[in-house]
Design a protein that fits this description.
Mean pLDDT: 92
Number of helices: 6
Shape: globular
Structural class: alpha+beta
Distance between the termini: 9 Å
Order of helices and strands: HEEEEEEEEEEHEHHEEEEEEHH
CATH superfamily of the largest domain: Naphthalene 1,2-dioxygenase Alpha Subunit, Chain A, domain 1
Number of strands: 17
CATH topology of the largest domain: Naphthalene 1,2-dioxygenase Alpha Subunit, Chain A, domain 1
Radius of gyration: 22 Å
Largest sheet: 7 strands, antiparallel
Strand content: 25-35%
Low-confidence stretches: none
Length: about 350
């Protein structure tokens, strides 16, 4: 009989390491350069990415099957990645294609490494991290802003020394903006008192202030679907901030390990053509530093929260979005772990 892997502690440990069964951004597209491998750690897994002869991103474990050296320290040869230690070469499926020190070596043709589906989208590389209940990658369905001709979008990526769960909780809590960001460019307005309303959607929920809209960071949509978790929110901009209406943020929080994560924020505005170029210039020249100032306030606050704070926190009405998000993540984790437990039972039967 196997241990109960779906108990409360097991579920928490699994979530803290990084929820699987999702497409997740792992780096900016420009970081995976032609001819050079790029290494990154996601959800406790060391990955290496590179571009093949057609420019498509490939991704496998960052581990040479010969002696365990990091393939990310190697080089790209004919669309494959070669270890710098002894030259052992692996393709995008994780198969050893060449052992140059010993032609016709018995290792050639073997597939010892896990490979991962990867997609370039909206200036970032997304990788699918399989789970026990969803080992095959579902269709890649990014936020609509990423593929729409009506939106101009570009990403920023930063590392925070706290759990990815803290970032997601923060996004599900619009009320914090009136306090934490009260001295910022656009978040200094509106009431500091309100109640929150939660409305379920097909892929998650929206959490919004009841008595205020279009004044501050007043609502968030959380998307928790079978293949992706992210949030969407609007920040009102004054007329002087250029065309396109509110400043929209699409955000992902991606675990590196239990204590660190990458925060990805897509800056979005509904502009096209010359207006899009104008907004990019305006943002880079005048607004970007202010946006980073807001993110830095979030980072400092979230990194100050103890990792075991959930054991002592006292939630109230404003936290209905946080509570709902946590419930949905726990439900996904339990499904993954039940599938894992069933597979273990079948293997040991």
């Amino acid at each position: 009989m196997t241990a109960n892997v779906s108990g409360r502690d097991a579920v928490e440990d699994y979530i803290n390491r990084g929820l699987l069964g999702l497409w997740a951004p792992v780096c900016k597209s420009v970081q995976v350069k032609e001819g050079a491998p790029y290494g990154i750690r996601i959800a406790g897994e060391n990955l290496v990415l590179w571009r093949d002869a057609d420019g498509a991103v490939k991704c496998v474990e960052d581990f040479c099957p010969h002696r365990g050296a990091k393939l990310s320290l190697g080089e790209v040869q004919n669309g494959n990645v070669a270890c710098r230690y002894h030259g052992v070469t692996v393709d995008g499926d994780g198969t050893i294609v060449r052992v140059p020190a010993m032609p016709e070596c018995a290792l050639e043709g073997r597939r010892p490494l896990k490979s991962f589906k990867a997609v370039d989208c909206a200036g970032a590389v997304f990788v699918y991290l399989p789970s026990a209940d969803q080992p095959e990658a579902p269709e890649f369905e990014p936020p609509e802003e990423f593929v729409s001709d009506e939106w101009e979008v570009f990403p920023c990526m930063t590392r925070w020394d706290c759990s990815y769960r803290a970032s997601l909780d923060n996004a599900a809590d619009p009320m914090h903006a009136s306090y934490l960001h009260a001295d910022s460019f656009t978040l200094a307005y509106g009431s500091k008192q309100d109640t929150m309303r939660l409305e379920r959607t097909d892929k998650g929920f929206t959490i919004e202030r009841v008595n205020q809209r279009g004044v501050n960071f007043d609502w968030t949509e959380l998307v928790v679907d079978p293949g992706m978790i992210y949030f969407r929110l609007d920040i009102p901009y004054p007329d002087g901030a250029g065309p396109g209406g509110p400043f929209r943020i699409i955000g992902f929080a991606v675990a590196i390990d239990e204590e660190t994560h990458h925060s990805f924020f897509w800056r979005c505005r509904q502009v096209q053509g010359v207006a899009a170029e104008s907004w990019r210039f305006l943002y880079r020249a005048f607004l970007e530093d202010r946006h980073w100032h807001v993110l830095e306030q979030d980072r400092v606050m979230l990194e100050s929260i103890p990792s075991d704070a959930r054991r002592r926190e006292m939630l109230y009405q404003h936290d209905i979005g946080v509570s709902r998000l946590r419930q949905m993540i726990v439900r996904k984790a339990k499904d993954h772990l039940k599938a894992q437990e069933a597979a273990l039972d079948q293997k040991t039967a």
